[in-house]
Amino acid sequence: MAELAADDPSDWRIAWTAGLRQLALGDPSAARGSFNAVYDRLPGEVAPKLALAFAAELGGDVASASRYFRLVWTMDRSYISAAFGLARTCLAAGDRPGAIAALAAVPEVSTHHAAAQIAAVRILVSPGVTGDDLKQADGRLGRMTLDEARRQQLTVEILRAALDWASSGQAPSRSVPVQQASGAASGDDLILGCEPSERTLRLGLERGYRALARLTSDRGRRIELIDMANAIRPMTWA
Question: Which end of the chain has fewer CB atoms surrounding its CB within 10 Å, N or C?
Answer without folding.
Answer: C
